[in-house]
Amino acid sequence: VEIEKIAEGQDLRYKATVAVMPKGKLGHKYKARIKQINAGNKSKSFAIEEKEIDLELEKLANSRVKLVTVRREAKKNDNVEIDFSVALDGRALEKGTSKNHPLVIGQGLFIPGFEDNLIGMAEGEEKEFTLSFPADYHEKKLAGQPAVFKVKMNLVQEREVPEINDAFAQSLGNFADLTALKKQLRENMEHEQKHKREEKIRSDYVEALAEDLEVELPDVLVESEAEKMTEELAGQIKAMGMDLEKYLSQLKKTREDLKKDWKPQAEKRIKAALALKEAALMEEIQVATEEIEAEANKTLQYYKKTQDAKEGIDMERFYNYTKSVLENEKLFELLGRL
């Protein structure tokens, strides 16, 4: 905004420069690409193999493990708690000390050789040993370097994993036997696999549309989208109890650096939205007002009181968003039939 004239008792005169949402031109190449995507997915199966079911059962059993404190030497697969410190060239490493640190021997969460040295240690026993960090260790200054580890064993617990049988299945809920549990697991896994496949297909559709779109994006629009992405990240970080500025300082980046890094992704997101809109127009996708209102009301039912929702939501914006979602659904259905 540029102020051109301002004086007491007179009209304010200013000049404003605004970005207009660009109108893209969508060709017809995308249809051939969509047909390729559809053809490539017709032969794919959602069948779940028996070994996948067995692996899921193992995960369930391990999530219900019973820990029993034992008075013996630690062995592989035991749950232990240790005090440890790490020193390099006689100096303690930053963040290289921990008290009552829990771990399962054999899971490989420490550098190679560390957990092997815990095998045979009993509660109260102390041990010192030297290991070298892997050559490809993520902290480059430690990669390949020998370090001295001091460990004290505080607790040894045996992991009692429940046997996978009918009784185990019945303990998980309303399952008559193990066969019934396996059936439910298979259905859940097939549903999840189908959902992931549909998401991937839709992502491929959007990519095909965006690649066929001819459009020039104003810098201000790209900057606005990058700022939106930054705010989305800030919200995610806040939900984890962190602060964006602190997070950026750890990365040694500024907010502007972040937006600059995200510019290609911001452009991609804008093109995707414009391509979907243009495709919906070309394919004459229509959504009745009744459909939009019914879908909007479904969402509003999640609120305890619709009136409270209306007070906290920009209803016009919410209506347009719902309309856009339904248009995209109809468009994806149409593309799936090509």
Can you tell me about this structure?
- The chain is 49% helix and 18% strand.
- The protein has 338 residues and is an alpha+beta fold.
- The strands form three sheets. Strands 4, 5, 6, 7 and 8 form a five-stranded antiparallel β-sheet that branches.
- Strand 1 and strand 2 form a beta hairpin.
- Helix 1 packs antiparallel against helix 4 (178-211), helix 4 (178-211) packs across helix 8 (263-282) and helix 5 crosses helix 8.
- The longest helix has 34 residues, at 178-211.
- The model has no long low-confidence stretch (mean pLDDT 89).
Could you outline the blueprint of secondary structure elements for this entry?
Blueprint: E1 2-5, E2 13-15, E3 25-26, H1 29-42, H2 50-63, E4 66-69, E5 79-88, E6 91-104, E7 126-132, E8 146-160, H3 166-171, H4 178-211, E9 213-214, H5 219-239, H6 244-251, H7 255-261, H8 263-282, H9 289-300, H10 306-312, H11 315-336
Antiparallel strand pairs: 1-2, 3-9, 4-8, 5-6, 5-8, 7-8
Helix pairs in contact: 1-4, 4-8, 5-7, 5-8, 8-11, 9-11
